[in-house]
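Hello K.,

You asked for the raw outputs rather than the summary table, so here they are, unedited. I folded two proteins back to back in the same session to keep the settings identical. This is the first:
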Amino acid sequence: MRILLTRARDEAIRTAEKLAALGHQPLLSPVLDMAPTGAQWPYGVIDAVIATSAQAFELAQFPPEWPLPEARRLMPLFLVGAKTAEAARRYGFEGEVRSAPDAKALAAAIVDEMHVPSRLLYLAGRDRKSDLESRCQEAGLDIVAVEIYEACAVEQLRDEAIEAMANGEIDAVLHYSRRSAEIFLALAERSAIDPRFFHHMTISADTAVPLQAAGLPFVAIAAEPNEQAILALLPHGNIAGDAA
């Protein structure tokens, strides 16, 4: 199958490698560019660090000496997914990791393990849902959100992707966030591409919302909100049967 990947470039490259190993032909056309904001580590005591994306560490622009090496070694880490944990380790954060599959589960783990008063640092993206922060605040925790990166919409799909879709050479499109799905629809319309002719695979029900609202007939939703589950929609070939 020829699969269109719309996620940010670095993440798309990693996904493309997995798709190729499964025998698929990936085509990259990111609809978002990830950029650092230049935000700095805050002053004061931090009891734990929260991150929901590897970008939180990969795009951070902290000075090498800050936070202090001792703090990097000892601070507990609440993270979503293995990739985020790997990125934290690469950038010198060695504290004990509490991992969860998504932000909702992570918030539950934080509230269960951290007690008032605790000051938590959330290395966040500029465009994000407020659920995790709201849950922690409701529990009385002091959560400081530092916006490390922002996702900027691209102006158009890649020419190669437009040509492949126009020629009916794309079998499926993978979507990893609601916002990226919304941007894809806008860019497809701008390029006079009708997205109804493709199968769309989404990482969550929330990601599927704009696709379903647009009346697309073939929208499949991963059983769990992770990449393994979204890729599991592809290999066995029963795409039409998976559509929802």
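The second followed immediately with the same parameters:
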Amino acid sequence: MHFCLILLALLSSPAILAHGLIHEQLKSTDQRIAKEPNNAALYVHRGRLYLDDDHTDMAIKDFRRALKIEPSHRAAHYFLGEALLNQQDPVGAERESRAFIAALGEDDNGGLMRGYRLLGHSLMGQKKSLEAAEAYQLTIKHAVEPTPSLYLECAAAYRSADKENLPKALAILDEGIAKLGPLTSLQEAAIEINLQENQVDAGIARLDSLIALGKGTEQWLFRKGDILIKAGRIAEGCQAYKQALAAISAVSVKRKTVSLDKLKQSVESALAGNDNDNCR
């Protein structure tokens, strides 16, 4: 069976997902291991059950037993890496993730995607941000359907490396936007980088694209006002605040919420706090 199918079966096993069956499954697996003490797959299976039952130490022992029996067991390397990372051992997790990746074929995109993501997490745990970003880029490369979180993780790694890598962080977010559309999470992260780079107009342009979508318009207009005020563009900022108030007023009574009321108070407070003719 193709490795990805095996890995998927392990991840989605009803015994793993149904907590009430874990102890029953553990007992059954113990019995099978007693009959087949050299079956590496059984130790991996029991290790996964232990993980789901919050017995990480015992899970790690089982994954290591599996690798002692079968040193090239890919799933054992992967799950051991995950368990070690959960135990705050990113160095060990890096070792296992690299062993897992090395054991995969070039066309095993599902496995490579998981492996490089685990490697990225392991490297971030060691504050090796730039290396982690490169691992996350390979994660995206091998993802058949990349999710927003993959782009966000990669951008965050580049961003935490140093200021010189902010353009790379922005580029990976724009790549995600081009692939997945102008998702709020990706645009918000990009706006933060624009502002960090003092690219106010670029950030405002992104906000305007979100406003144009017609979802959360009130909040985005308030955010636009804040950015412009901080940039010293008081007249434009107050205009955005007023547009936010108008958008809030246009919301039907049925749609009004406590959070919308709080937003209105924040906008009114922001306007009152600016001694400028444009804010009155």
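The chain has a mean pLDDT of 90.

Happy to rerun anything if the numbers look odd on your end.

Regards,
P.
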